[in-house]
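Entry 12.
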Amino acid sequence: MLKEKKGNEFLLSLLKKYGTLAALVAVICVFSLLEPRFFSLTNFYNIARQMTVLFILGVAETYALIDGEIDLSIGWVAGLAGILAVAAQAEGYSTSMAILIALIIGLLFGLCNGFLIAVIGIESFIATLGLGQIANGLIFLYTKGAPVIGLRENFMYLAWGKISGIPVPLLIILVIFLIAHYHLKYTSTGRFFYAIGYNPEASLMSGLNVKNLKILSFAITGLLCGVGGVIIMARLGSGQPTAGPGYLLNAIAVGYLGASVLKEGEFHILGTLVGAVFIGILINGLTILNVQYYYQFIATGLVLLIAVGLASMGRKK
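Predicted 3D structure (tokens):
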């Protein structure tokens, strides 16, 4: 009886650690068998372009999740930052200045989120949802629901360009992955974020400035939203008012999928990358197979529920 119990626990542990990876391999195999065009270098480049924003916003959400919080504003903040970057170019500003404006907008919203949560004491669910709605209102106040045009080619190069034959989005993913992975794993602030997420009371008693660290974490989240907003609009070639919010559900799914990769319930950047690849491949494969968009929503919702379940079981352990 004891051996059987240990065997079941071992199998459950394997499922929590490697279930997502096994499912990813299975999805790739199924799509490759159903559609020969799927397993091609051209399509993998397309997947990389499609998943760039998903990964960036997934990393942004991961920072919030590590702190034991959640950020529901990321889609709207990314959309506002991207819209204002396009507007800056339309007014004649340089590409670098337009990108800087997007980063500042994202950073400001991140700081506001952190202040409301860490200092005022509002629950992250409510604080980020409220600020997200403000960002959404500002988008439509500025655009009146119409696309903002005026992007130049050097801006769109961020989404469509290549360097030595390698798509720029792939390089962006690599840079953000390396920076975030190093920060969370090898720096003191990264370890403090994890400590706060696991036990904020113990972190406070051990001398950590929990308020400032949470504000810093949300500032990083906001900054990444600014980057994501730039890439969204660069891909679309114009400032689309409704482009940002659609990424929220998938970004949360990416974060929770990451917690079910290799580690039991711990949010980490390698897992977030795998989660972004998983969601990106799932959406790309369903699109190539001409599956209706509402089935894609159902598939994403199921993946999110399974990911949250696996992550929750790991964190309870």
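Annotation: Residues 49-316 form one domain. The radius of gyration is 20 Å.
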